[in-house]
Amino acid sequence: MIDLTVSFNHIKLKNPIILASGVWDLPYTEIVDFNKLGGVVYKGISLKPREGNPTPRITETPCGVINSIGLANKGVENFNKEVLPLLKKFDTAIFVNIFGESIEDFSRISEKISDVSGIEVNISCPNVKKGGVSFGRDPKTAYAITKAVCKNTSLPVIVKLTPAASNIVEIAQACLDGGASAVTACNTYQGLVIDIESKKPLFDKVVGGVSGPAIKPQALYKVYQISEGVEIPVIGSGGITNYKDVLEYLIAGAKSIQLGSVIFNNPLAPMEIIDNIIKYMNEKGYRNLKDIRECIDE
Ligand SMILES: Cc1cc2nc3c(=O)[nH]c(=O)nc-3n(C[C@H](O)[C@H](O)[C@H](O)COP(=O)(O)O)c2cc1C
Description:
The chain has helices at about 75-85, 105-110, 135, 140-150, 170-180, 215-230, 245-250, 260-265, 270-285, 290, and strands spanning about 5-10, 10-15, 15-20, 40-45, 60, 65, 95-100, 120, 155-160, 180-185, 190, 195, 200, 205-210, 235, 255-260. It is an alpha/beta fold. The chain has one domain (about 5-290): Alpha-Beta Barrel (TIM Barrel). The strands form 4 sheets. Strands 3-4-7-8-9-10-15-16 form an 8-stranded parallel beta barrel, surrounded by 7 helices. The chain has a 4-stranded antiparallel sheet with strand order 5-6-14-11, with no helix packed on it. A hairpin with a 2-residue loop joins strand 1 and strand 2 (about 10-15). Helix 2 runs parallel beside helix 4. The chain binds flavin mononucleotide (FMN). Flavin mononucleotide (FMN) binds near residues 71 and 261.
C-alpha cells in the first residue's frame, strides 16, 4: 500500500495535492471527486462582498493565462452560510484564502472563520489597488498581518507570498516570526497585455497575474530558496501541469503543492496527477512521500 499522507504544523492531508484558490468554485465538485484531493483552497474572500475588476478579466498567454479578477467574491458571511456547508460534505482539508485592504481587515475576517483546516492569507494579489502585492513585498507588513491573523485564530495560518518581493526568503522568515504554520510560494507573477486596437493595456488595472507553465521554473526556484533558507513548511504553487512537475516541487522542498490554471485546460488533471504519482511510486518501489523526499514532519 502506498501512503501519500503529509502532515506539517497541524495541517494533515491525505495526499499533497491541493486545489489553488480562485481557479474553481462549487460547480467543479461535479467534475472532480473532492474526496480524493489532499485539500482545497476556497477563493479569496473579504469581509464584505467585492465586485472585482471590470471585464476583460482573463486572457490566454502563449504558456498559461493572465488574470485581473480583482478578488470578486460574495464576502465571508456568504462563505460561512452558503459555501462551507457544501464543502464540508467532502472528506478533504478545506482552506480558505482571505484578503484585506488593511491589517485591521485581515484581523477581523480571521475572527469570522472557523471549522476549516486552515486560513491562507493572501498578501500577494497583483491586480488590486490596495493591499495585495504591496503588502507582500514588505517584511514588516507581512509580519504584522501574519501576527494579527494568528492572534485572532487558533487555526493554522498559511501566508501566500508574492514572487514580486525583492527577497522572498526574508518575507517567508517574517511570516514564520509572525506565527505562520506554512507559506504558499507563490502567487501569480505580474504581467501586462496590450490591446493593439485601443493601444491601451487590456486590463483596467493595467497589471495582471501570470500563471501556468510559463512561471513554473521561476516559482520552483522560489520554493527551493525558501526551503533552503527558512524553517517553515512550503506549499508549492505555480505552473504545475503533471505529476513530474509535482515531483520537482517536492524534491525542491515543498511539503505539498497547489494546482491552479491547469484545470482550465484539463479539468481532470488533479485525478490524473494523483494516479500518476501512485504509478510512479509503485514503479520505483516507494512506499511514502519520505521516499521521494523528506516530506513528513511528525
Ligand atoms: C483566475 C485566477 C484567479 C485567482 N484567484 C486567486 C485568489 O483569489 N487568491 C489567491 O491567493 N490566488 C489566486 N490565484 C492564484 C492561484 O491560486 C495560483 O497561486 C496561481 O495561479 C499560480 O498557480 P498556477 O500557475 O498553477 O495557476 C488566481 C489565479 C487565477 C488564474
